[in-house]
Amino acid sequence: MQNFEFFNPVNIVFGQGQIKKLGQLVPTGTKIMLAYGGGSIFKNGVYDQVKSALPGLELTEFGGIEPNPRYETLMKAVEVVKNEKIGFILAVGGGSVLDGVKFIAAAALWTEGDPWNFLTNRKLVVTRAVPLGSVMTLPATGSEMNGNSVVTRLSTQEKLAFNADAVLPVFSILDPTVVFSLPEKQVANGIVDAFVHVMEQYLTYPVDSPIQDRFAESILVTLIEEGPKVLVNRNDYNAAANFMWAATMALNGLIGAGVPQDWATHTIGHELTAFHGIDHARTLAIVLPGIMQVKRVGKREKLLQFGERVWGVKSGSNDARIDEAILRTVAFFESFGIPTKLSAYNIGPDFIPVICNRFTNRGIKGIGEKGDLTIEQVSEVLTLQL
Q1: What average pLDDT does the structure give for the chain?
Q2: What's the CA angle centered on 366, arms 363 and 367, to 5 degrees?
Q3: Domain boundaries, the chain
């Protein structure tokens, strides 16, 4: 196992009816910004629950944070935070809202030029941010228990990420009943998003880390077992709770501690969203099978382990077992309507050089856990998924 530091101070408040505890969690004596997305919280009753839990507090509202939150929108919120002297930001929504709030919180205290710089320049470190908390309405990203944020800039068609302990939420409330009102597409996306988060930290190469491996496998199996239950019956509380907790555990740092991590699927997938607006999870479903094929030699041992422990594939040659593991993963995604081919989005081979050229222009020579997925192999991955 590799050396690691694991730090996660986020207070998770989990279960039905927990939104009422907001008044005990947010700081008093400071202005609070309530940030949300397109308005689903008004339809599902979460907005009313939040407001009822915060009587008498001075609230400023900022709505309209998009899926794949846009830099242009978020900078408007930054100005509100500065002008109104906001002391705490409460994100109410899915992972995109929380990702956006993390950027707002960091950008509001950033003093070194355009805040976009700390997304484009990894040498710049965010060390200060307005404190923030969250009420999550969509299991998927795990943003409620990590310091990650991904932001899209329309003017340059870029989707970039940053990570900082400074934007770890003070608390996150997870009430599984919010799943009851989610449309099928959002649930399906959430299952894939969480699944691929685990795979990015698990499907690399062995470093004798049985705890992390077993935790990762348990999350994958839970998503395989519980995800379809949620799709069939949105009001199944236990399935919704298991799904929500699996999505959180998929990316809170625990299964990635002391092990190599890949993130090539995300790196490529972000470009599909930036240029074509495809839902984040759906880009992951396209790219992951191609990564598994192209890197089947370098990932051989973990692919065989994945096939055996997660899918029960134990017989046949090594190549046959790997093929079967990939096929079952694809079948799982497609079983709830998630396409795994670029053609489903009318994207042809002409687009592949656009992504490769972007990586080349950024000075990227290789990605993945060993940095050895070359630009040529990125092209091969995408070609396989046409």
Answers
A1: 96
A2: 110
A3: 11-177, 184-384
